[in-house]
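Re: [help] complex structure
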Amino acid sequence: MGNVEVRRGDITQIVAEAIVNAANEMLLPGGGVSGAIHRAAGPELAEACKLLAPCPTGEARITPAFRLSSAQYIIHAVGPRWQGGRANEAQLLEKAYRSALALARTHGLRTVAFPSLSTGIYGYPLEEAAPIALRILLEEASSFDLLLLVAFDEKTYLTYSKVLQEMGTASR
Ligand code: ADP
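Output below.
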């Protein structure tokens, strides 16, 4: 819909001014998408992150993309760990997306690619996370040329695609 798109792929292969990392509060490499981004950007990324840590849940930090030539910047956003749904997870997830977009805006970036924050190792239910993520991207889309949600696996791709389609139908 418009300038918000869902794509299937590996975020380290996506051409965008900034890609977003699903980071942890210590901004350490870890597994999942963070491990992939750190491998692609090289050891300079962990050094840069060390200087910016900690990053509380819901906040974001920005670094260069170092050896990752498909992007200029990496925005490290910390989504919440799922704890059953009564620990403010929805507000914190929304805040993580908004913090990343606010940093992109202040740096004048026009294209930003997100992974599905919190729905991997952090265990946030995909069906609940997708409408939150897409609502924020749609709300903020007018400040950007293109906002991408990059899904690594088929289930994530199908869920986000369906939710985006439903949101498009609902707003017509
Ligand atoms: P979190 O700890 O926030 O849950 P994860 O990295 O474990 O972060 O998972 C977030 C999402 O990123 C999951 O949907 C996972 O499948 C996906 N993912 C893992 N590797 C990549 C990648 N290279 N590109 C895009 N998404 C990825």
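Strands lie at 4-8, 18-22, 60-64, 73-77, 111-114, 146-151.
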